[in-house]
Amino acid sequence: MEKVWRLRVQSGLLNHFEKDSATIRSYEGWKKDVVNQISEAFKNGKKDSLRKSEIVASMKDVIQKQVNEGKYNSNHLSNSARDIRTKNITQWE
Q1: What is the mean pLDDT of residues 24-28?
Q2: Where does 1-90 have alpha helices with state H?
């Protein structure tokens, strides 16, 4: 489980927060309380000049607490969502 969280935060959420992406802004519309908690961990880490790995750890801790409470920032965390790639696919795919 630890590896999954680390990969999820590092490759996904951390990049979205760093870029203030449209994805994060869209989540704020329907998961505002959950996303705001993760955002606070990110912002506090930046404010405190933490290393990237420390910010990831802080965000992971918030996400793990939320999941333990049955709160998900994304349906992917509850294993009830799938992504379908539509760019750069062949006609066969």
Answers
A1: 69
A2: 2-8, 14-19, 22-30, 32-47, 52-68
Q: How far is CA 63 from CA 60, 86, 89, in A?
A: 5, 28, 33
- How far is it, in rounded angstroms, from Cα 85 to Cα 4? 20
| Alpha-carbon dihedral 1, 14, 57, 70, rounded to 10 degrees | -50
85 vs 17: which has the higher pLDDT: 17
Half-sphere exposure of 31 (CA within 13 A, CB side): 18
What are 41's two structure tokens? 């961990």
Q: Where are the domains of the chain?
A: 2-72
pTM exceeding the 0.85 threshold for the entire prediction: no
The three-state secondary structure class of 31 is coil
Q: What is the mean pLDDT of the chain?
A: 78
